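Regression check, 2-(butylsulfanyl)adenosine case 684:
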Amino acid sequence: MDLFSTPAPDSARKRVEELTRLIDHYNHEYYINDTSLISDYEFDALLRELVDLEKQYPELSLPTSPARRVGGDINKNFRQVTHRFPMLSLGNTYSIAEIEDFESRTRKLLAGTPFTYTCELKYDGVAIGLTYRHGQLVQAVTRGNGSVGDDITSNARTIPTIPLRLQGSFPPDFEARGEVVYPFEAFDQMNRQRETDGEPPFANPRNAASGSLKLQDSAECAKRKLMFCMYFLMLPPDSPCLSDPAYSTHSARLAAARQMGFRVQPYMQECENIQDIKAFIDHWDQARWDLPFGIDGVVIKVNQTSLWDSLGTTAKSPRWAIAYKFKAERVSTPLIDISYQVGRTGVITPVANLQPVWLGGTTVRRATLNNADFIAKMDIREGDSLLVEKGGEIIPKIVGVDLDRRPADAQPIPYVTHCPVCGTPLVRAEGEAGHYCPNQDGCLPQILGHLEHFVSRRAMDIDSLGSERLRMLYDAGLVRNVADLYDLTRQQLIGLGEGSSSSIQEKGAENILHALDQSRAVPFERVLFALGIRYVGEVGAKKLARHFGDIDSLLNATVEQLANVEDVGEVTAVALFDYFNQPVHRQIIERLRAAGLQMQAVDNRVGNQLQGMTIVVSGVFQHFSRDEIKASIEQHGGKAGSSISGKTTYLLAGENMGPEKLKKAEKLGIPIISESDYQKMIEN
Ligand code: IVH
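Current build output:
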């Protein structure tokens, strides 16, 4: 308890209890029973009141409080946890014949014992296990490798379909397993927002769900509108419920879970025989496109849990269940023409414009053709019809040419030779698949791309300038390159974009100028990264900054000197040399220098104790986050390696370190040191 907070008066305690009860009830009605009993506004007011009360009286804040749903816990590294019961996967197949084999094999093995199957949806998301003790959520862990996963409890608490406290009766100790999915509507909304914010969109809802569960700030996860679909209730071997008829079948267990407050999808069906199973599969192969979330197949389980032991498990998966995976849907549609998009780095992407065609729940009009090699390899010609597929991904893929529909004298399609935006002849670097437009400083998408990269969080971190505002500055003729940003004045900014959602008022102008001012302190290595030189990422920029020390040495370096830097290859060295030797770039750098940006590396080394050593870190530490311990190694003259090899000096082991790393270190005879050994080493 916080020493300075006053003890909570009874009235506060009562109000917290009351609010908790009300919010839990409205939440349950809304997310589990799809019933809205009060307005969003009223609901938010209740939640806010609870959050505020718990802030005022921390002793009243329970781990199961609905106030936790708004998140706010920060996860530095996710703690690795060993699953109490391994999270097995299922045998899976795309073939109905194998489902028939599974059914007849199961029937034979169970020789005469009456039993049924359950058929249910195979959710396309991220598997997690939730531990409940005495009706309270105590831990949420991702599947990981099946034996060890990540502790994502504080993020899981923000998912409204994960009950924090259970209702009615429940086993004293059990695990609820299921899949966290990203419903399509919320996924699309989030991806649109990301594009507006200049962040890369997620490829599909599964990746997005997985990324969301690993967010460090649980308040961010709370915004993601994830959904938990429960598909399994796991009882420990000593559970009193094992002899309870209410838990003797898989379907009864899920029905019980529904009563406890879980969202259990209603699409399960009990089946007697292979005909019923096949009918279920056929139905969902079509009907899946009408669901609000993605599925990638159907799971068939023996329903009577007492038979699971006698059927047993193979090394990886139980013999009492199997997954049928849907084949990707495929259609053939005429290619109208190819258009070429210019990316923010100047890379050209050819896109097939297709005769609109209905595929897997949406109309497809366009699909990427990746690059010239892809078109050549597929031998796509004028007048062709293309085969388009959509699997678990919601993004359609071109998988080939429909040769049956090829016109008799179809000619190859010449690839674009000039930039479709600025007309500059395209180039293609040796060994690279993509063509690109070399007019970095005069081609609109590239100019905007550079500006966006420059202000991005890991570069200069000027977050009051998003992509829309940068576009506004460009359109107003105020900014053509990154140096122009530092010439902006209050007068120029105020009133820009009048009428649009990102228009700049007095306060906005101040924020922008303040952020620009703060960026003058950003270390040299990040300034170097922010310049957006081809092939120079964060790590490369750091190494270059450290090696050369300041911008002048870099400006004067030869290709050989540049290639001498660790991890800088020939191609990057040439790109750097070219960049620094173009007068426009020299001019920009001089203007940035004059604006007060850091052009010199600060030696943040505090000692040489680890000179010449390569240390690989693994696991969780008491006094450092993972990034901190790596930084500390470098500050003491060592190198932080990422994988164990013959060159590794020590493996620095924290709690719950990865078993693979340990095995490898033991095999190569690499000494393992602890956090306190490490601290002693750097103190000496
Ligand atoms: S049952 C021991 N049921 O598919 C049985 N799994 O390869 C455990 N999945 O890792 C799994 N929907 O993540 C089951 N209705 C469902 C499922 C389901 C999706 C996932 C699960 C598992 C994988 C199977």
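Comparison notes: The two ends are 38 Å apart (CA to CA). DSSP finds 24 helices and 20 strands in the chain. No diff flagged against the previous build.
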